[in-house]
């Protein structure tokens, strides 16, 4: 089978969500405050369904188990990546994610290293990214006293920025930001602070996970050293944001396509593609498939090469694991 796998998004309501997934991306989303589009996922909390071709109606996690040739016959038990689009109408909780070892012991799933490409950021937007505690004792004391103003690092952010968020990093997207998130396939989040918000459906404050947060936060915080590289090929621009060994679990690329180009898998055996804007085509084995904003697909390992054409803004990723 030599064809791309086009996927149907899954949407999740969030206390901090809004309606931009409808107004900016044209998705037919449910009523309410929709914060997350799970775009490419094999996770049980939001499974992606194939919309085209031989495997139409099947889910990514089932293909991973039953048609492993599509992914280069990998060793892992679960599809390792999860791609989301996030709409932060309000600020997310300040949170941290565990690494693989802690998550396996306590949550029975993968850890969660992730990254963000900022699709849109309103003027004055910022992230919580890291903390100012010098050691574990100071971290615990600042958390227990609620000294959030001194503990949390606020980082200004603008459209087009990229942030790599390894497990153990204190972080939060804040109000007015849309981001494409590439992450390990995990839904484990430890809330450190939630602005004392009350959930409208329960009438109660959302649970915090102070012990788990203190167990997993990296102290002291160190910004990862990224080697972001861009190259111009004709009218097209290709940017590599992260890849192994800096990012052991995934590589992430930004492709700005203006003229036809042939592409191949790079460090992985299959490639995840999300179209952020524009229109064009992907051509596989002489067959054209339409691309437009909001479309998500997997180019499987059974496809050696493909051509992109049109005017396209794409975030692509590959698994860093065998």
TrEMBL record:
EC code: 5.3.1.8
The protein's name: Mannose-6-phosphate isomerase
The species this protein was found in: Companilactobacillus zhachilii
Mannose-6-phosphate isomerase cupin domain residues: 240-317
Binding site residues for Zn(2+): 97, 114, 171
Cofactor(s) this protein requires: Zn(2+)
Gene coding for it: manA
Xref: NCBIfam families: manA (TIGR00218)
Record's cofactor remark: Binds 1 zinc ion per subunit.
GO BP term, example: carbohydrate metabolic process
